[in-house]
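Entry 14. Ran structure prediction on the chain below.
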Amino acid sequence: MIDLGYSLSRRFPDPPQTDYRTADVRALRHDLFCGDVHLADTEADRELSTGWGWVPVLDFAWALCDIVERLDLDPRGSRSHRAQYAELDFTETTDRMRFERRFGWVDVTADWQPAGEPPLTLNHAALRREARDFLQDLIADLTDMHEALAGNPVIWDLQARFPRI
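Output, structure tokens:
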């Protein structure tokens, strides 16, 4: 089972003058909602998590949904033996998460993992479902904290693009 989670940082709060209703894509993806994220395989009791406090949490969820879709571009889907690759880079550091899909499985590694540690191996369909649920739950949490965010057209588009499965 996959567990995706986040925590918002108290060290990097959003600017108090932020108008969440009109925040543009750049602000939503890179400037707001900083914190930490984790991706865990609960059955293997292993996780990849950040501990920096400044990761744009909405951007992580958005990028993860994009990556899962890019990993599914081969028309043969889970029957494909050819590896498909994607990376998620963190803007304030050189660290990256790497995703490699082969057949119906995705191996996830991160630059900050100890050397020799095996990748997290996750079912692609489950990762797609969990990534979309994580995004939708995150948006719900953020709009509970900042009601004006619910009126932002960028958020509407994002919710429509990655609905729950």
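The radius of gyration is 16 Å. Will compare against last week's run tomorrow.
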